[in-house]
Amino acid sequence: MTTLTVETSALVGRHLRHLGRVPMRLLGVTVMPVAYVVIFGYLFGSVIEVPDGGYREFLMAGIFAQMMLTNLQHTALGVVDDLGNGIDDRFRSLPIAGLAVPLARTVADLTRVVIACVAMAVVGYAMGWRTHTGPAQVLAGFGLLLLLGFAASWIGVLLGLRLRSAETVSAVAFLVIMPMTFLSNAFIPLRGLPDWLRTACEWNPLSAVVAACRELFGNPGTTGDALPMRHPVAASLLLTVALLLISATLAAHTYRAAARGR
Description:
The chain is mostly helical. It has helices spanning about 5-20, 25-45, 55-70, 70-85, 85-95, 100-125, 135-165, 165-180, 195-200, 205-215, 225-230, 230-260. The radius of gyration is 19 Å and the shape is globular.
């Protein structure tokens, strides 16, 4: 293994051990995502009708994508915490690759959302969610979700390094996550919206990811007039890869600049 891989693996282990020692963080990983599935599944499922399928099958791709997007806030707050308690300064004083520190943070947070996805999938299955495609397509759907979560985590690194305040990070993350989640097809079919609002929702990158996952899972709710809705898998893959490359490059540059200026 390369030196970067070894150093990153050691730091990922440190993050995961810390997660296991803080029960409240484990609650955030398991209990809250499961609560979202149950509440949204039964609350919205009783009033929203979805063509060609039930609402709970429609919901799961959207709630998976929402969980991946919230990785942005968790990572940003973790970076701010490391900056505030001096851990980051100690890492920078060690003879390790500078990229290992932010990379370990993003990989550890991606592991956290994998745990959340497993818990949500189990509860969703108990509530009636099923996939109707082959194993390769289902795995591709979860792979696309993890790619979104990884990109969101790198955006979180960038925000944490730039803002350096938990209050500011929470406010900015709210302004990003809430509009992207609710101005999308994550929780409601878009067919009943006014034309201008439906168009805006269909061009939301999160809508492309959600529609792609529904297509890969064989769940209802993949139709739309905008280009990302007509080709959701290709569009979501292109958008998430571009977002990952841009955010990771900017975050790595910001981290190196901060290390040089300390």
